[in-house]
Backbone:
């Protein structure tokens, strides 16, 4: 990747969810996932149409926003999609330049560059649409010293559960409609200057019943990685089709969050009530033939249902939650990389079979 990077990205700035009840969502992510209260905006800060709670753990910032009035784009989004990810914000040095470069290459504008100012300085933001109604907002915050963004005040409640060791966003996966994956791969390539890191077809990711195709796009410094999934023909309905049916279109399927100690993190998450997929027992009978030597105790990984995969660079450990809202849409991945740069290709079959068991119980397979 030696071409000039016209869109230098420093990392994921924040992920914003539009939800039905931001106060309760914020409480859930504090309690279950160990996020720390960061900042608040709402009626008390002069907003009349919405309320937002910002939470942080490590370098991961989540924002939960709910509409205060029915006639609102936030309310419409939540009505159509249920609780879901609206904004994948990207941290940049120059939000005006990021907007200019992406619009010139064919991006659809979501927000022209604007400057938000308060007593803590200024933030420049601009935005473009990606798949479905999801947007990327470019955030330039080098001249801002407040807790989160202008208009937010520090949120410091007495209830502050401890974190669970989550460090940063590893990747965010988007689900798109039939035949659309390559359009969005081209979008990230031509509009945002990303390159394809890896691809999987329906032979890689399939079971007896369902299949999907996936390609992974990443930016120049590898801090931003976006796998894009598309359904593929199978005997029954895949998880991607189920997502698109219930989300009512394309959207962000899951956020993968990295930890340095997946065993400790998963134990804490389970003790707080987070539900994870259960892989078939037979998975552990042959997994060591595939991944060879690892540092962790296999029995511990088996007890916690943690998946293992290896590539040329090393190995990784991962586990996926069940959907975290009533619609079977958004979920989370917990991942620990021990050298591996890949995405757990060797686990796809076991993972899909686990998801199919869940789909069967929902009557949507």
Residues:
């Amino acid at each position: 990747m030696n071409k000039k990077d016209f869109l230098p990205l420093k990392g994921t700035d924040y992920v914003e969810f539009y939800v039905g009840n931001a106060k309760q969502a914020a409480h859930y992510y504090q309690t279950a996932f160990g996020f720390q209260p960061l900042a608040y905006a709402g009626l008390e800060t002069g907003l009349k149409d919405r309320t937002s709670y910002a939470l942080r753990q490590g370098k991961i910032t989540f924002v939960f926003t709910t509409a205060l009035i029915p006639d609102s784009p936030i309310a419409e989004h939540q009505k159509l999609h249920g609780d879901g990810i609206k904004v994948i914000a990207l941290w940049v040095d120059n939000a005006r330049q990021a907007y200019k470069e992406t619009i010139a290459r064919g991006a659809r504008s979501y927000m022209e560059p604007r400057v938000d100012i308060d007593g803590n300085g200024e933030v420049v933001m601009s935005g473009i649409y990606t798949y479905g109604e999801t947007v990327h907002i470019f955030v330039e915050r080098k001249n801002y010293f407040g807790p989160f963004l202008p208009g937010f005040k520090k949120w410091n409640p007495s209830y502050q559960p401890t974190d669970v060791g989550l460090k940063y966003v590893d990747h965010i996966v988007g689900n798109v409609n039939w035949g659309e994956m390559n359009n969005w791969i081209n979008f990230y390539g031509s509009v945002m200057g990303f390159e394809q890191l890896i691809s999987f077809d329906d032979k890689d990711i399939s079971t007896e019943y369902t299949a999907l195709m996936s390609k992974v796009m990443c930016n120049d410094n590898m801090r931003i990685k976006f796998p894009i999934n598309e359904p593929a023909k199978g005997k029954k309905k895949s998880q991607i089709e189920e997502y698109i049916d219930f989300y009512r279109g394309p959207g962000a399927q899951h956020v993968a969050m990295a930890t340095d100690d997946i065993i400790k993190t998963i134990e804490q998450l389970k003790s707080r009530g987070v539900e994870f997929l259960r892989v078939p027992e037979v998975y552990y009978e042959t997994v060591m033939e595939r991944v060879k030597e690892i540092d962790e105790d296999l029995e511990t990984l088996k007890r916690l249902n943690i998946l293992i995969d290896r590539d040329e660079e090393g190995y990784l450990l991962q586990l996926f939650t069940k959907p975290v809202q009533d619609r079977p849409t958004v979920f989370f991945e917990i991942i620990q990389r021990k050298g591996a740069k890949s995405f757990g290709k060797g686990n796809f079959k076991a993972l899909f079979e686990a998801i199919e068991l869940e789909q069967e119980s929902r009557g949507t397979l």
Summary: DSSP finds nine helices and 17 strands in the chain.
